[in-house]
Amino acid sequence: MNETWLTVVGNAATRPDYRETAAGVAVARFRLAVTARRWERAREAWTDAYTSFYTVWAWRGLAANVAASVSLGEPLVVHGTLRVRERTGERLPDQRSDQWSDRPSDRPGGRPGEDGGGSRRWITADVDAMAVGHDLARGTSAFRRVSRAKPLLNAPTGATPP
Q1: Model-level pTM greater than 0.85?
Q2: Whose CB among 15, 76, 129, 151 lies 3.0–4.6 Å from 80's, allowing a Cys bridge?
Q3: What pLDDT digit, counting tens, does each position of 6-41 carry?
Q4: Residue 8: CA atoms inside 13 Å, Cβ hemisphere, count?
Q5: Rounded distance between C-alpha atoms, residue 30 and residue 12, angstroms
Q6: pLDDT 10s digits, 108-126
Q7: How many CB atoms within 10 Å of residue 38?
Q8: Residue 131: CB partners within 8 Å, gap ≥ 6?
Q9: Cα angle at 133 between 16 and 51, to 5 degrees?
Q10: 112-119 — which CB contacts under 8 Å span 24+ positions?
């Protein structure tokens, strides 16, 4: 299956929301703001152009590390697969909580519209992250390796062999 792999550089627009699924799988999500910059010859200066917003999804160990490492406004580099989806419904999900919101302005990057039946449509751009890190071109970071508990294969279990 073909997938679109991309690397995006931007700033964390929301704090990571960390949860565990019913099956116990860790998941974290946050919004990433990516602003294009253009050189204006007339002013001889860089200016901001448009801003795109992506919902970044991290799973399992990456989710726990993202929740512990990423803060609002920090510059990040995200690498993963892109999923662009059209959604329809009466209400738009609010990315900040489990609540629902009727206001399109509560969902940055969404494009609400009418499909003729009173139902709203919008487009989402999600990134299933394989790697998330701080952008070291814009600051420094201190790495700490996370040690995961590994079961010992030869550990005594209390049972005596036959």
Answers
A1: no
A2: 129
A3: 999 999 999 999 999 999 999 999 999 999 999 999
A4: 26
A5: 7
A6: 444 455 555 567 888 999 9
A7: 10
A8: 62, 77, 78, 79, 80
A9: 70
A10: 115/88, 118/90, 119/88, 119/89, 119/90
